[in-house]
Design goal:
homodimer, 50% helix, eleven-stranded mixed sheet
Chain lengths: 357, 357
């Protein structure tokens, strides 16, 4: 069976142009792609890239009249948009007409739709979105949630830690990934009330929990995983981005100050470009939504065409190696074990009360 | 009357050495200082700096046998330490034996003690700690809370915004400071449930509220004030610090790669030192705790002696210009106005239920 990746052509700050450009690049590498979006626009874009796209590449189009903007107001509003490219793409995944979905659109909308349409893995209360960040010594640290989970109960963060543990183990081969909990101090008593509760849970868990980690140490490689809620994760990620941007802006200002420094910074400029791209998650490609039954890859809204291409290739690889199936089996078994080990009645109560949206 | 500044000699990562060194510098500029800490140790330290300190400078010592460590477990535990340098210093302030307190110690302890011993300004639910951060175009942005308020109700953040507005107006002369609310997206519907509620409150307030601000824009000078809870503020501040540190580490690594780049970076190295210090809040000096009746200046735990000196000079200036009195009068009047304008019954209910710890 041919593996086809669904791509939300209308999602992202520079959609559909950048998305289509990324799709062409992935198709050139032999990936079969189904584009979801406004047909006429997509046909003309594809033709402008390559007039013979129909015969040369395995690209098909499913017409979707609506687009969910990056500014859509509420989840309730989003769910009314059943003719949108995201909705139809995810519905195709649910019906197994495609093997995975890639979107650079409104992540709240994708997260919400994927959670409700595709279904969560049994036992998972909140699917989560993570990404690998670089560390200064060449390693990587997997941070989650960076998605839409802004109001988290302690059990959600505990589950994020378990999902991240399985993900990092399988992806990197690290046997016992070190799990850190993002807090406002390394001491166990530091944190919001939720974080303090999570600390206790992780301390009593089977995970390799190394304690609280402070935000100033995220790039120091002290842990393989950093767990946080989606609101705090967003602040962390975007502060890092914003700081790198500010540093490069200050350097540019200083360079204007004298001929000598302009000359010197001109020569070393390549380095700063490299550093900036190292911290820029728009280049990363895409992040797998953990905890839903089928592969959904969410790319950054300001993705470049290379990032879209990478996200598609990543989704393709995930499908080919049947990664999601294996991952989800382990997650399901782990959640079962954890909820049995925990105060069973509490856990069941929380789960039954817990509607994903 | 001679204005005397109380300095907690035992607070901070490098106490008492660095603190005493900072105290000598401030005393050389004519400030009268009362040191709180272990007398014998302080006498020998002062003597090692200057044998004639007793006659040359207006430095006195109040012996305090106990020290509150940076690792103290809980607020309850902290309050048992009535023989600690922080407790006794703040108690002296309460009794008006000194005019202000400066400490680089455990900020949770100082915050808690100041709130309970000195009392809050009428109407203020939670005192808050803010600091000015640099922006790329030479301006500054005042962020609060960066202190111990980790679990905030919407009304706390609303009050932080009002206090910051008054503080920034008086300190900078900006007539209508632009107030931003830190969130995970600029759209009004983005944020945790608390942040969304605060958005509505600030939108309906008399403040110059410019909406949500994303963490990637904190250094871009879009606002004069950024409001957040203490947990998120800590993550933001320390991520910025950690990112600058990571960037300089990567630059150092790259410099090792070749003679040429080592040479070039050697010449431009001063610039990176400058950038690092611009983002390093350990150099800032101290932050005034807003919302308590007397001036308490909290310096960073890893303060240098210059930072301690600056914090003392700042506290001294605050006392001389009677700043706290004026500030607190305006805060009190504003809180009264706000709580009348707001749903009065709700507000009174929240306030009466609200114990500071």
């Amino acid at each position: 069976m041919m593996v086809t990746i669904a791509v939300d052509a209308m999602g992202g700050d520079n959609a559909p142009d950048v998305v289509v450009s990324g799709v062409i690049k992935a198709a050139q590498k032999g990936v079969s792609i189904c584009l979801f979006g406004q047909e006429q626009r997509l046909v003309s874009l594809l033709s402008s890239f390559d007039l013979e796209w129909k015969t040369k590449y395995a690209i098909t189009i499913v017409h979707c009249p609506d687009v969910i903007g990056m500014e859509e107001i509420s989840v309730r509003h989003i769910f009314k948009q059943k003719m949108s490219s995201v909705y139809i793409a995810i519905d195709h995944l649910k019906q197994k007409k495609v093997a995975a979905v890639v979107s650079a659109g409104n992540s709240t909308a994708i997260h919400a739709m994927a959670t409700c349409i595709i279904e969560r893995v049994a036992g998972v209360l909140r699917p989560a979105l993570g990404t690998f960040l670089p560390t200064v010594y060449g390693g990587r640290v997997y941070c989650l949630d960076l998605g839409a989970n802004t109001d988290c109960k302690p059990i959600y963060l505990e589950q994020f830690a378990y999902m991240a543990d399985i993900y990092v183990r399988e992806l990197t081969g690290i046997l016992r990934p070190r799990v850190g909990l993002l807090s406002n101090g390394h001491e166990p008593y530091k944190g919001s009330s939720v974080v303090k509760d999570v600390f206790k849970r992780l301390k009593n868990s089977s995970l390799n929990f190394v304690g609280n980690i402070e935000a100033r140490d995220i790039f120091q490689g002290h842990t393989d995983i950093i767990v946080c809620d989606g609101f705090v994760g967003n602040i962390m990620l975007k502060t890092a981005q914003g700081t790198v941007k500010a540093v490069t802006q200050i350097i540019a200002q200083e360079a204007k100050a004298s001929y000598l420094s302009r000359f010197l910074l001109g020569i070393t400029g390549g380095l700063f470009k490299k550093i900036k791209s190292r911290f820029d998650y728009a280049n990363v490609g895409g992040a797998l939504l953990l905890g839903v039954k089928e592969p959904v890859v969410i790319a950054h809204g300001s993705s470049t065409s290379e990032a879209i291409e990478n996200a598609i290739l990543f989704a393709h690889e995930v499908v080919l190696c049947q990664y999601i199936k294996k991952f989800n089996q382990t997650v399901q078994a782990t959640m079962q074990k954890v909820s049995i080990a925990l105060d069973a009645s509490n856990s069941i109560h929380a789960q039954s009360q817990d509607h994903p949206l």
